[in-house]
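Internal ticket #5521
Category: modeling
Description: The requester needs a full-assembly model to guide mutagenesis choices. All entity lines are attached below as received. Residue total reported by intake: 347.
Assigned to: D.W.
Attached entities:
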Amino acid sequence: MSTFRVWIARLAGLFGRARRERALAEEMASHLEMQVEENLRRGMPLAAARRDAAIRSGGLECAKDAYRDQRAIPFVDHAVRDVHYALRVLRRSPVFTLTVVLSLGLGIGANTALFSLVDALLLRSLPVARPDELVLLRWVAHDGAMSGSIDGSINRDEGTGLVTSTSFSYTTFQRFHDDSQSLSSVFAFAPMEQLNIVVDGDAQVAHGQLVSGDYYSGLGVTSFSRTDDRPGR
Amino acid sequence: MADKTDVWQGTLALMVLRTLQVLGPVHGYGIARRIEETSGHQITLNYGTLYPALLKLEQEGAIRGAWGVSENNRRARFYSLTRAGERRLETETERWRQTSAIVASFLNPAPASR
């Protein structure tokens, strides 16, 4: 119970430091003066009386430190004093402070921005119905085997001499689409570089993508109907 | 005592409590002087020993401090015993008597053993 009381008192001792410091200084000063008066009553000259009182005190600053350690929780109290000291020093050199604050701010900001990007691109799954069931088909061949007949993007691995691509001919796609057993739907997409779009007589340049009719239903995203890719529609 | 300024931890609290019981409300200087005189000047209390001990007793609720004016019109903090302090003085006095009696019985050679 008594230990609990002491810790409550020590917690309280962390606050109102300036007031407590003044009280402590006054209490010790009054003690010192009483000792000086006593020495004078005993007939000591003033200088000797003062010196004797100071020696008996055992060092005021030392005593104050011992008192502070009992008053509060030493390591918290020291941390608070360190922070106060740091703030005082920073206030004295505003240019340095500004530089530090700006570089820290920029650093933290850049990190946050980069993480948001990585999070959106790599960590989060795609905003479709069942992102973990999506597969991307690609073919692998020895150099020169197939690439000549395909108009699309091709990657050549210099180490193995293999070429890979996710581009297929439209006929191949149609076979995949019609004969697929394991996939619930097969759809295709291809980039269109630039488009002119006119809305209400206002022309704009846009980036587009050609997609097959199952694109939206396959992704589980509701949009156009599956017959929109038929000729004449 | 080997060192004049040596005060055992725990015994100082007892000395302070007893001083306050005898003298009533008194300031730190008064407590220090009284303890020095009662010990026949074998104990010297510097501030670094006395004030943390007073503060600890105050935190434990055994004593209470209040600002007042000394006989020489000087502002000082006067300490007095609380109820809890009186009870603690009683039990600690009893414990100290027992301890010192036990130690004394070991140190005093019993006449029969001679």
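Resolution: model delivered.
Comment from assignee: The interface with chain A takes residues 27-29, 32-33, 44, 46-49, 51-52, 55-56, 58-61, 70, 72, 74-77 of chain B (CB under 8 Å).
Ticket closed.
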